[in-house]
């Protein structure tokens, strides 16, 4: 962990870092959980994990969104995330939304009207607003975890445990 001289109390490394500002942590995580819950679970999980790969957020890569797992998202499909543009496991809708999430995380200022129009051929206007909001909180969370080198632990952080479960461990 970098840049932090003294940690707060907490069950996980995430809690010990973010509990330095407990009110912010509570409000942010409530917003985070509500934001991702407004988007189709499999779609937001594919985007969240693609963003985690690009940002090297080990904490996020160590978690799975329960609603996406319950909806049938498989580890086999997640293993193909790096080649989503050509893998037959991904729908056109998923490809377009993952591409948009990549642009969002790499340099959102380069997103064009054409990019947003393309996503909106797959999502309703309301779904699009919720999708972009979810990408925003995911991006903020992952960048903070990377900046403070928050590592995954043996348990899911309590403020995430209702929505997330540990990813399967590699054999």
State the order of secondary-structure elements, H for helix, E for strand: HHHHEHHHHHE
Which residue ranges are poorly predicted, with pLDDT under 50 across at least 5 consecutive positions?
A: none
Order of strands, widest sheet = 1-2
Proportion of residues in helical segments: 55-70%
Our count of helices gives 9
The radius of gyration over CA amounts to 16 Å
Quaternary state, please? single chain
Mean pLDDT: 94
| Structural category | mainly alpha
The N- to C-terminal Cα distance equals: 27 Å
Note the overall shape. globular
Number of strands: 2
Description:
- With 171 residues, the protein is mainly alpha-helical.
- It has one domain: AhpD-like.
- The protein has a two-stranded antiparallel ribbon.
- The model has no long low-confidence stretch (mean pLDDT 94).
- The chain is globular.
- The protein starts with 12 loop residues before the first helix and ends in a 5-residue tail after the last strand.
- Helices cover 57% and strands 4% of the residues.
List strands and helices in order, with pairings.
Layout: H1 13-18, H2 22-37, H3 41-55, H4 58-61, E1 63-65, H5 66-70, H6 75-79, H7 92-107, H8 113-120, H9 125-147, E2 164-166
Helix pairs in contact: 2-9, 3-7, 3-9, 7-8
Question: Brief description of this entry?
Answer:
The protein has 171 residues and is mainly α. The protein contains 9 helices and 2 strands; from the N terminus they run ααααβαααααβ.
């Amino acid at each position: 962990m970098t840049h932090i001289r003294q940690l707060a109390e907490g069950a996980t490394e995430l809690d010990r870092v973010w509990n330095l500002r407990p009110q912010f942590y509570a409000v942010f995580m409530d917003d985070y959980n509500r934001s991702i819950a407004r988007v189709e679970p499999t779609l937001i999980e594919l985007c969240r994990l693609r963003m985690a790969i690009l940002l090297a957020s080990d904490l996020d890569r160590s978690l799975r969104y329960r609603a996406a797992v319950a909806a049938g998202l498989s580890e086999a499909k997640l293993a193909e995330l790096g080649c989503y543009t050509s893998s037959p496991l991904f729908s056109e809708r998923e490809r377009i939304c993952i591409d948009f999430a990549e642009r969002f995380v790499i340099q959102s200022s380069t997103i064009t009207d054409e990019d947003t129009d393309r996503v909106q051929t797959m999502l309703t206007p309301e779904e699009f607003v919720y999708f972009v909001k979810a990408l925003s909180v995911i991006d903020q969370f992952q960048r903070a975890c990377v900046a403070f080198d928050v590592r995954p632990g043996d348990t899911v952080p309590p403020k995430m445990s209702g929505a997330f479960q540990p990813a399967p461990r590699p054999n």
